Recover the amino acids of this structure.
């Protein structure tokens, strides 16, 4: 878990850097651009978490492919404003005792719709671990930014 | 007592494991291949019997060594082994001669074996069966596959395969539930699967919301301060400090954070309401 944390921190910082560099070209403070930027940061956080975990886990695989698909769809929509049809694979699942709760959990864990209940629980455990470490690291990054910015403000 | 019948008897002695042989022999064999290649493929198919491949390849290369090995294998079938040895010496040129004969005779292995032609492959079968038979003797019954979960029915419980599998599944689920309960703070006291699931769902949602909130904050902080600070571009400078902080934090940190800064998060949501405005 520690190596995952380090990997995640490294990847996330790198992608944040990339975002910043890209942002400078199209600088703007309107609400839409800020919202778009927020989404980009969020996607970067999830993507770097998933890529730090690697393709061993089902949830990270599902998350990465989802992000990739979204990006491709976005590009396609931009290029030729035509809706792309996505093929949805339905997997037959066994009956679960409390379907509503399990369905809720399936929606929360990426890729959970195609899992059976056992592996869903397994993936959920790992996903929770990764989310907690992600939150820790993001929080420390924010703290670092804020402290450095405040010290900068004092200096200027 | 002629030797082939003794072979047959040794098969039936190791009968519980002979199904693996039945699976093995229909393995497609390229006609032109030598016996060596065929047996190598066979060894690949076997997989679970460690060291069989080596034996099998040596069968076709050098017969006498194999018979020695097989003689060392089964103490129970020692007398039969002896008979094998005597046969194998005689069948040595035949079994190495052509692979096709081998295959044909393999297909008809359950029938009464003919004369010398068959001795080559019947020896191979005899060897594998003695090997697996030895395993079976050690455990008292045929060895289950590796990923098989062993479940025992208690008194009064159903013993058909479906209920056994269902019980195994339920045990697995409850085990993972326990792991999840340890992961989610404040979930240990909750009793009942539905409530535990509820708690897990809430926790994941709160974590995801925290990620959203943090990325919102990061976006704001990033955009505010990035032009002013030039030294932060070097990831080399930043990464070690984050690693250190990540290590220092205990696992309880996010939970406290969730409780501590919830008003702040609301404030953020209100203040930066751009998310809802558009």
């Amino acid at each position: 878990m520690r190596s995952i944390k380090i990997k995640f921190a490294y990847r996330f910082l790198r992608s944040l850097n990339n975002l910043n560099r890209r942002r400078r070209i199209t600088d703007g403070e309107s609400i839409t651009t800020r919202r778009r930027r927020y989404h980009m940061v969020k996607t970067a956080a999830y993507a770097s978490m998933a890529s730090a975990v690697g393709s061993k886990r089902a949830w990270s695989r599902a998350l990465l492919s989802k992000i990739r698909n979204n990006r491709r769809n976005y590009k396609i929509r931009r290029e030729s404003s035509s809706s792309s049809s996505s093929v949805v694979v339905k997997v037959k699942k066994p009956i679960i005792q409390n379907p509503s709760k399990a369905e809720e959990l399936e929606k929360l864990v990426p890729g959970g719709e195609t899992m059976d209940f056992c592996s869903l629980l397994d993936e959920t455990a790992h996903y929770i671990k990764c989310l907690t470490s992600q939150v820790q690291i993001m929080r420390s990054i924010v703290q670092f930014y804020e402290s450095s910015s405040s010290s900068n403000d004092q200096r200027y | 007592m002629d030797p082939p019948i003794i072979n047959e008897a040794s098969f039936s002695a190791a009968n519980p494991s002979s199904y693996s042989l039945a699976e093995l022999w229909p393995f497609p064999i390229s006609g032109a291949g030598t016996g060596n290649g065929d047996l190598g493929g066979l060894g690949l198919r076997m997989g679970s019997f460690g060291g069989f491949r080596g034996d099998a390849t040596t069968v076709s290369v050098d017969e006498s060594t194999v018979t020695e090995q097989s003689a060392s294998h089964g103490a129970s079938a020692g007398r039969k082994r002896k008979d094998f040895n005597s046969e194998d010496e005689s069948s040595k040129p035949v079994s190495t001669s052509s692979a096709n004969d081998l295959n044909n005779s393999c297909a008809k292995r359950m029938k009464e074996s003919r004369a010398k032609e068959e001795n080559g492959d019947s020896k191979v079968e005899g060897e594998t069966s003695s090997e697996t038979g030895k395993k079976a003797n050690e455990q008292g019954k045929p060895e289950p596959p590796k990923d098989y979960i062993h479940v025992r029915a208690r008194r009064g419980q159903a013993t058909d395969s479906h209920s056994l599998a269902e019980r195994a599944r339920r045990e697995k689920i409850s085990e993972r539930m326990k792991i999840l309960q340890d992961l989610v703070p404040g979930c240990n006291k909750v009793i009942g699967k539905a409530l535990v699931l509820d708690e897990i769902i809430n926790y994941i949602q709160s974590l995801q919301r925290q990620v959203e909130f943090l990325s919102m904050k990061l976006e704001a902080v990033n955009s505010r301060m990035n032009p002013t600070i030039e030294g932060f571009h070097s990831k080399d400078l930043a990464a070690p400090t984050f690693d250190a902080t990540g290590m220092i934090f205990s696992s309880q940190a996010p939970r406290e954070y969730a409780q501590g800064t919830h008003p702040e998060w609301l404030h953020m949501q209100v203040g930066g309401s751009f998310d809802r405005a558009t």
